[in-house]
Amino acid sequence: MALIVVRGDRVAVAGSGIDREIDIEQDYVAGLYARLDALREEAAGRLAAAGDREAVAVWQAEVARLGAVEQGLCFGRLDLHDGRRLYIGRLGLFRDEGGEPLLVDWRVPVARAFYTATATAPNGVRRRRRITTRGRTVVALNDELLDRDGAGDDGLVGEAALLAAVTAERTGRMHDIVTTLQAEQDRIIRHESGGVLVVQGGPGTGKTAVALHRVAYLLYTRPHLRTRGVLVVGPSRIFLDYIGQVLPGLGENGVVTATIADLGQGVRVSRVDPPSTTEFKGAAAMAERLAAVVRSRVRTPDHPVDVEFEQQVLRLDPGDCARAVRKARRTGLPHNQARLVFQREVVDVLARRLVEGMEAVVLTDTGEAIDGGSPDGRLGEADLRALAAAGVVVDQDEHDDGPRTLLDDTDRTALTDSLLADTGVRAALDPLWPPLTPEHVVSDLLHERTGERTDGWSAADVPLLDEAAALIGRVDDRATFGHVVVDEAQELSEMAWRMVLRRCPTRSMTVVGDPAQTGNPAGTSSWERVLRPHVQDRWQLARLTVNYRTPAEIMAATADLLAAHHPGTPPPRSVRSTGEPPWRVGTARADLITTTAALAAAHTDGQLAIIAPSAHIEPLAAALSLATPPDLTGKVVLLTPDQAKGLEFDSVLIVDPAEILGTAPLGHNDLYVAMTRATQRLGIVHPGRPPAELSAIPEQP
Fold first, then answer.
1. How far apart are CA 335 and CA 433, in angstroms?
2. Do residues 462 and 264 touch, judged by C-beta distance below 8 A?
3. Closest CA to 8 of 131, 149, 140
4. Cβ distance 196 to 531 under 8 Å?
5. Nearest to 613 by CA among 654, 660, 550, 652
6. What is the DSSP-derived secondary structure letter of residue 8?
């Protein structure tokens, strides 16, 4: 059986007609897989014969790309008014090199009508057919005839396929939505912004899926990004594991994923800051504070400094130091690189004085050499030792004519290098312009501000360490990218934005988020505030307004919460109802864990997420024998609201909403996140009376 959809009216059609159509499509799809297998075999052969590292990498990537599109290789067909028939899929396939296309890549312009054509605006499309496969077998067809009267057109493309996708049982892994993209999503995916594109949308609008499909689109249309690289920044490693299959399923395997903490290479996060400390560390003012710490470590002496070199004492005047500091700072180099300029300038002064002392013989009234030389102008023992230490060998017999310039440019360079390498010289210069590490800079700042030494690093420290590394010039192997995606971007502090933007010199970014879901006290409520200081007006805002995930009943239950904390913020419009209103259960605080465990044990339909404040995670995990950190593929998953960001489940059970509301300054946003993770059902367990924002939700009888 297959569904033939005409103007949104779903009609089940059975019998030989539809069976014959399935057979036709099966033959065509089998031919596509035969072509795919041939390409795989060719790529595997090229890989086996590859003789250098670059060729191996190229063919490994091609083998991975062809392997990743096995499932759902072909998912659509367009019948055009001009008689052409186009099959749409995950990548382009051709009969032979430069030949007729067998399968059109979903990213090419001609395929766009598959996502945007409607009865009122068919764009030359007579019929859109969605082809559902299981493995390599065609199991269903879904047709939309677009050459009829467009009355009743609701703007949803492929409604039956879309609803089937959003109501399908969750697996703990996000799947791509390439077969069900809607027009507003497609418009953002293909947006030609050359700067920062901010995609804002409420729960369930597909922000993450849109961002990932946009990455696949950009990699296809801007091939240079394959060499410059793409970075996807997510809120947690749990989230990155959840989305990990999407891009490979679209044929893209070369994207780097990371959390903010991951970007601080070598930094081990071992503690959690209280909200007030997190907010303090995330403020943009920390950049100037760190810069001030670095500047303060450079010291100009107010008295002469004696520098010992090869049993001689050279004097460095305060003016010499001040001039060297000014010249080093004018270079604009980071601290540790500018330090080398400072040292070179100071050592040049010392070398000149040393050479002057070696080459000028001053006699007393009795004819003795004051500088340790001899009355006839020959070099003394101290002079010879200093020159020998510098690698300069002087033949005394060649200088019997008296005082003269003995060192050429090469000799002077050797002398300067010897001064720079001398431990005594370094010991004198290091206190004036010391080498710094990011760890010392950040520790010193936090100690100056709090009076305490911290034990280990928090996630909020990572952007500070990165800022310090930029200030001192210790960049290590930090990579930059041609395009960066930031998901759940509302969670980034101002300092985290600085860190991310350093990874993207071109400022080509896709930023997705929802300020109403901000949980980080250092997060953002204004894209303008966090972006304009870095990109000026090179950013645009695009909105997603349709909620494909969350049923209307659940979104209605969030109305009081939104009205109380985000007045004037419209919720996204849900496209479906389930007929299952949210419910709540009251219990005694002493019975909270056992009540929750009993409700979880009674759950049998789909994947259940239990979302609870941190204080309840350990006792719930023990009572339910659940893993922490969570296993997202389990039938029951236990998470905090922060861990649940960006995820979705069939059912959600929220534990102790009052504790969620009161734990953090933005607890109301955390509760909003928790309430909008479900695709089907929402339940709430509360000790005592429910929070006022949830009192309108009916109590379970």
1. 9
2. yes
3. 149
4. yes
5. 660
6. T
To which residue do tokens 């009829």 refer? 148
pLDDT at 51: 85
Ramachandran area for residue 226 (φ above 0: left; ψ -120 to 50: alpha; else beta): alpha
Residue 695 CA to residue 626 CA, distance in Å, equals 30
Which residue matches tokens 């493995």? Answer: 135
By C-alpha distance, which of 42, 159, 31 is closest to 89? 31
Closest CA to 314 of 346, 354, 344: 354
DSSP category for residue 522:
T
Q: What percent of the chain has pLDDT over 70?
A: 88
Pairing relationship of beta strands 137-145 and 2-6 according to DSSP bridges: parallel
DSSP one-letter string for 531-564: HHHHHTT-EEEEEE-EESSS-HHHHHHTHHHHHH
DSSP bridge pairs for 305: 316
Residue 333 is encoded by which pair of tokens?
A: 């180099």
How far, CA to CA in Å, does 527 sit from each of 198, 535, 541, 542? Answer: 8, 11, 9, 12
Residue 198: other Cβ atoms inside 10 A: 21
On the question of pLDDT at 397 being above 60, the answer is: no
d(CA 686, CA 693): 13
Contact between 316 and 428 under an 8 Å Cβ cutoff? The reply is yes
Q: Tell me: pLDDT of 73 over 90.
A: yes
d(CA 350, CA 314): 7
Other residues' Cβ atoms within 10 Å of the Cβ of residue 49 = 9
Read off the pTM: 0.87
What is d(CA 356, CA 125) in angstroms, rounded to the nearest whole number? 89
Query: Edge-to-edge strand order for the sheet containing 101-105?
Result: 9-13, 2-6, 137-145, 125-134, 74-80, 85-89, 101-105, 93-94
pLDDT for 94-148, tens place per residue?
987 777 899 999 999 999 999 999 888 999 999 999 999 999 999 999 999 987 6
* Amino acid identity for residue 126 in this structure: R
pLDDT in tens, 209-228: 999 999 999 999 999 999 99
Length of the chain: 701
User: Residue 655 is inside which H or E element, if any?
Assistant: strand 649-655
Measured between alpha carbons, how far is 114 from 77 in angstroms, rounded to an integer?
A: 8
**pLDDT bucket at 474, cuts 50 / 70 / 90:** confident
Q: How far apart are the first and last CA of the chain?
A: 40
Q: Which residues, 6+ apart, have CB-to-CB distance to 441 below 8 Å?
A: 290, 293, 294, 468, 471, 472
**Nearest of 531, 559, 462 to residue 200 by alpha carbon:** 531
Q: Is 139 helix (H, G, I), strand (E, B) or coil?
A: strand
What is the maximum span of the chain, computed from C-alpha positions, in angstroms? Answer: 128
Instruction: Over range 246-263, report the average pLDDT.
Output: 93
Q: How far apart are CA 128 and CA 122, in angstroms?
A: 10
8 A C-beta contact, residue 252 and residue 180: no
Computed on alpha carbons and rounded to an integer, the radius of gyration of the chain in Å comes to 34
Q: What is the DSSP letter of 169?
A: P
192-196 average pLDDT score: 90
364 pLDDT above the threshold of 70: no
| pLDDT of the residue at 390 | 56
Tokens describing residue 193: 């912004």
Could you give the count of Cα atoms lying within 13 Å of 293 in the half-sphere of its Cβ?
27
Print burial letters for 527-552: b (CB count within 10 Å at least 16), e (below 16): beebbeebeeeebeebebebbbbbbb
Higher pLDDT pick, 652 / 448: 652
CA torsion angle 64 66 70 72 (round to 10):
120
